[in-house]
Design brief:
The complex is a heterodimer of chains A (374) and B (134).
Chain A: E1 4-15, H1 22-36, E2 44-48, H2 56-63, E3 71-74, H3 80-93, E4 99-107, H4 120-124, H5 130-145, H6 149-163, H7 177-182, E5 185-187, E6 190-191, E7 200-209, E8 216-225, E9 239-241, H8 249-261, E10 270-272, H9 278-287, H10 296-301, H11 318-322, H12 326-342, E11 355-362, E12 366-373
Parallel strand pairs in A: 2-3, 2-4, 10-11
Antiparallel strand pairs in A: 1-7, 1-8, 4-7, 5-6, 8-12, 11-12
Helix pairs in contact in A: 1-2, 3-12, 5-9, 6-9
Chain B: E1 5-7, E2 13-15, E3 21-28, E4 34-35, E5 50-54, E6 58-67, E7 80-86, E8 91-97, E9 109-119, E10 125-133
Parallel strand pairs in B: 1-10, 8-10
Antiparallel strand pairs in B: 2-3, 3-4, 3-5, 6-7, 6-9, 7-8, 9-10
Classes of the chains: A alpha/beta (374), B mainly beta (134).
Chain lengths: 374, 134
């Protein structure tokens, strides 16, 4: 791939902002990213969002007088922002554009996400219970690997501890295994603190052709979908066949991304992965190739993925601390990792980070893996 | 006297007068896989050689949880069971379940039933499919 560098990143904090519109959130993130990049002109803009409605990206750029070029909104569930990044990088690689603005915006209602993905009869029958699908997957993970509820709770404790150091996170307080297991059961085995909160936020990235010394490079931006048949993939079908031999979309995306970037999991210094629930992070360890199948419980027990360990995962605090604004969450990871690679992550800095990976998996199913380096 | 039942969506399942319930699925004659709900295209091999079948009314429990809070668009009672049942046809079906208890385990035999969701203005009861231990 042509050298593509990240010349600016910006964020609107993730949380609840009743007095701000989704456009306001986007403006904050976009202005910050453009300012950091030296306020370049850009050839095109790609905006990831699932809930912001018609021409949501146009409204953000209208507000700052930066319209005129192509502005395209992209929806790929939780991977919307990563899908926008993939298309922008591909356009630069193809020679179509030199500079592209990529951003993601969202303002989610509270509670279980209502999704037009589910037909009305499924809602009426009670089958539009997204956390219940997460719970079933968590139960299978426990059965297949011996992961315990305490280990699920420890994922939350780890990420919330990281989140204390992130001023852009929704939750900036520590929690304990006892508090996690003491929070109400949403769907057995998942307790409330083990699930991320849908919320509001925005993130933006400026991509430019060419990379000089010290620049953060985008080495791979991959999006894959599910193969047919898996009953507990995020495609949430009503039925499926025996899925023992069906490769999950995260693994498909990871394999592609490692080849494109010319690295292997052992080269990684820092990872931001989808932790929509605590079990989802542990599934990602295995699906991304960070550990052998069934080894994820040991990684948590030995603090291998805690800041200070050999491969910190979710130093930003993850979605369990930040909450999840769907269209913005994947780019929020890229903002975090860019800062990590620049050595500008402050108290949550991973020392000497040179190669970083971001991962999302969401409705569709859509899985993204992005690899950055410096 | 219970009110007449109407399915939450026509064509999902059939309830006979004797109370036996069957899911209405399809079988792809090209790749020999089953699907539910019924469709006219095979989601595995895109063949159009798909025939309607009545699926088994028994299966084995594969996964289960409890939904405590009414999900979006749902007006029925909570809590309710939710999980996956594997049918002898090799199909794993996402389904409501009777409320799980300590007898629930992987492989426990389950039988299809109907579950009442809510009443309509026409004095009928909307029902969906559910599985309970045999």
């Amino acid at each position: 791939m042509t050298d593509v560098r990240i010349s600016g990143v910006g964020l609107h904090p993730f949380g609840r902002f009743p007095d701000r519109t989704v456009t306001d959130l986007g403006v904050t993130a976009v202005r910050a990213a453009l300012s950091e990049a030296g306020d370049p002109s850009f050839d095109a803009a790609f905006c990831g969002t699932a809930y912001a409605g018609v021409a949501a990206g146009h409204k953000v750029l209208s507000a700052i007088g930066r319209t005129g070029g192509p502005i395209i909104d992209i929806e790929a569930g939780c991977a919307s922002g990563a899908a926008a990044l993939m298309l922008a990088a591909g356009a630069i690689d193809a020679g179509q554009y030199d500079t592209v603005l990529v951003f993601g915006i969202e303002k989610m209602p509270k509670g279980i996400i209502r999704s037009s993905f589910f037909e009305p009869w499924r809602e009426e029958a009670g089958l539009a219970a997204t956390p219940a699908y997460f719970a079933l997957r968590a139960q299978r993970l426990q059965r297949e690997t011996g992961v315990t509820k305490e280990q699920l709770a420890r994922v939350v404790v780890k990420n919330r501890r990281h989140g204390v150091q992130n001023p852009d996170a929704m939750f900036q307080s520590e929690t304990t295994v006892e508090a996690v297991l003491g929070s109400r059961v949403v769907c057995e085995p998942l307790h409330l603190f083990m699930l991320c909160s849908p919320n509001e936020g925005a993130a933006a990235v400026v991509l430019q052709r060419g990379a000089g010394p010290g620049a953060v490079r985008l080495d791979a931006a991959v999006l894959r979908s599910h193969l047919p048949g898996s009953v507990l993939g995020e495609a949430t079908p009503m039925s499926g066949v025996d899925d023992t031999n069906i490769t999950p979309p995260t693994t498909l995306a990871a394999q592609d991304a490692f080849v494109r970037a010319g690295v292997t999991p052992t080269d990684l210094d820092v990872v931001e992965c989808q932790d929509t629930d605590a079990a989802r992070e542990l599934l990602a360890y295995e699906e991304l190739g960070l550990c052998e199948p069934g080894e994820q419980g040991r990684l948590i027990d030995t603090a291998a993925t805690t800041l200070g360990g050999p491969l910190p995962v979710n130093p930003s605090g993850g979605l369990l601390s930040k909450g999840e604004p769907l269209g913005a969450s994947a780019l929020g990871q890229v903002v975090e990792l860019t800062r990590q690679l620049r050595g500008a992550a402050g108290p949550r800095q991973v020392d000497g980070a040179r190669v970083a990976l971001a991962h999302t998996i969401g409705r569709g199913a859509n899985a993204s893996v992005t690899i950055l380096s410096r | 006297m219970s009110k007449p039942h109407v399915p939450v969506r026509p064509g999902l399942f059939e309830e006979t007068a004797s109370g036996v319930v069957h899911l209405l699925g399809s079988r792809c004659t090209a790749c020999d896989r089953y699907l539910f709900p019924r469709g006219e295209l095979c989601p595995y091999c895109s063949s159009t050689e798909v025939e309607p079948v009545m699926l088994s009314d028994v299966g084995e429990l594969w996964g289960w949880t409890v939904v405590h809070t009414a999900p979006p668009g749902y007006e029925g009672p909570v809590p309710f069971g939710f999980g996956v049942v594997e049918l002898p046809e090799g199909l794993r079906v996402i389904t409501r379940l009777e409320l799980p208890d300590t007898t629930f385990d992987v492989g426990v035999p389950m039988r299809l039933q109907v579950a009442e969701l809510h009443d309509t203005e026409d004095d009928e009861t909307v029902v969906t499919y559910t599985f309970a231990p045999t």
